[in-house]
Specification:
The protein contains nine helices and seven strands; from the N terminus they run H-E-H-E-H-E-H-E-H-E-H-E-H-H-H-E. By secondary structure, it is of the alpha/beta class. The protein is globular. The structure holds nicotinamide-adenine-dinucleotide (NAD).
């Protein structure tokens, strides 16, 4: 069969030798994505505020896989820090083929009680952090005429979760989905594909910490998921790898929902 520009189907999914940045790599989903890239031979820069977790992950990845790993402590909302961190990655890797934005925070608070600080912090980390990362890394990708950006949005950018009140989180994730589509439209001409994935409830420190105050929500949520279980970080990895691969060269501006069917109902 004629596979056009590809030597084989395996070739479509080959990522070996590429260079990636994963933000929030100290967390559940970002850590799993970084692991997936390293196993496939991708040199990976782990970005996070929490340096302990990324230093530990760097050691694990370098012990298991023949790849280069950088652990970079950085606040993705701080442009100067991001510029410096990305320059460090470019000095070490020479190029960046893939950017995954998987940093984020969560909070539950009724809207009538939400403070300006609650609102600003949420929008700053979850949305402005994506803006800064996409812009700084995107400028490099535009110069090269290629690149894949995958933002971790959320099903909360499409539906309102219940029963927890989190209007600012939901708004931040709707913003990530629309930012993704807007960048996809603007940067298609530069060969830069921009997509997002929207996980449902995924067992990570973010969700586990929130559930501590209302453990009874876990059963309620599970009853709303057609597949009857929460996601594990690994459930998100394959989708991100697919979007980063050449198999997805013709996909841009897409939001791939990984929610066990939650948003069907
Ligand atoms: N867990 C879920 O149920 C779920 C569902 C949908 C979407 N998401 C999204 O997936 C992404 C990853 O979440 P997770 O569940 O792995 O959470 P997590 O708490 O395990 O990981 C998030 C990571 O982001 C880092 N971080 C926070 N602010 C930062 C900043 N300013 N600069 C750099 N790093 C920062 C944290 O230190 C942490 O390591 C987030 O965007 C989250 O909103 C999670």
């Amino acid at each position: 069969m004629d596979l056009g520009k590809f030597k084989s189907v395996k070739d479509m999914f080959t990522l070996s030798g590429q260079k990636a940045i994963v933000t929030g790599a100290g967390g559940g989903i970002g850590g799993a994505i970084a692991y997936g890239f390293a196993e496939l031979g991708v040199d990976v820069a782990l970005f996070d505020l929490d340096s302990k977790r990324i230093v530990e992950l760097k050691e694990i990845l370098e012990r298991r896989f023949p790849v280069k790993v950088l652990a970079v402590k950085v606040d993705v909302c701080n442009r100067d820090q991001v510029e410096e961190a990305v320059a460090f990655v470019l000095k070490n890797f020479g190029q960046i083929d893939i950017l995954v934005n998987s940093h984020g925070i969560g909070q539950w608070t009724p809207f009538e009680n939400m403070t300006d600080e609650d609102w600003s912090r949420m929008i700053n980390v979850n949305l402005t952090g994506v803006f800064v990362m996409c812009q700084v890394v995107g400028r490099h990708m535009i110069r090269r005429g290629r690149g894949k950006i995958i933002n971790i949005a959320s099903m909360s950018g499409r539906i309102v979760n219940r029963p927890q009140p989190q209007a600012h989180y939901n708004a931040s994730k709707a913003g990530v989905i629309m930012l993704t589509k807007s960048l996809a439209a603007e940067w298609a001409k530069y060969g830069v594909n921009v997509n997002c994935v929207s996980p449902g409830y995924t067992l990570t420190p973010l969700v586990e910490n929130l559930l501590r105050s209302q453990p009874e929500y876990a059963d309620q949520w599970r009853s709303l998921i057609p597949l009857g279980r929460f996601a594990e970080p690994a459930d998100v990895v394959g989708a991100v790898i697919f979007l980063a691969s050449r198999a997805a060269d013709y996909i841009t501006g897409h939001d791939l929902v990984i929610d066990g069917g939650y948003t069907i109902w």
